[in-house]
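Quick start: what a row looks like.
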Amino acid sequence: VQLVESGGGLAQPGGSLRLSCAASGFTFSSYAMGWFRQAPGKEREFVAAINWNGGSTYYADFVKGRFTISRDNAKNTLSLQMNSLKPEDTALYYCGKATLNPSRAPPAYDYWGQGTQVTVSS
């Protein structure tokens, strides 16, 4: 299993970024996927999750209305569109493969990417 995130970078407050996660080594369309983030000195926290076919999505309260999770099962790709970014969104963002169903809990994910850094600053 390999998960490779991309798309991070520096954004201004109010700006946008789109993260991608390229998945390989497993049947992508059979598993829920999620995005988590971790800021320095803090625990990894749930951002968003999506079920196997994209029909159900789940968000942390602090990103509702600003972030959108999506997936393309034909391309084995998970995405996170981030709009209206805030300085507090600064963190290392990880995609994770769920053991089966979507979850807000990190232990429900068995594989992780290496992360992509998002920095929101003026």
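That is the whole record. The radius of gyration is 13 Å. The mean pLDDT is 97.
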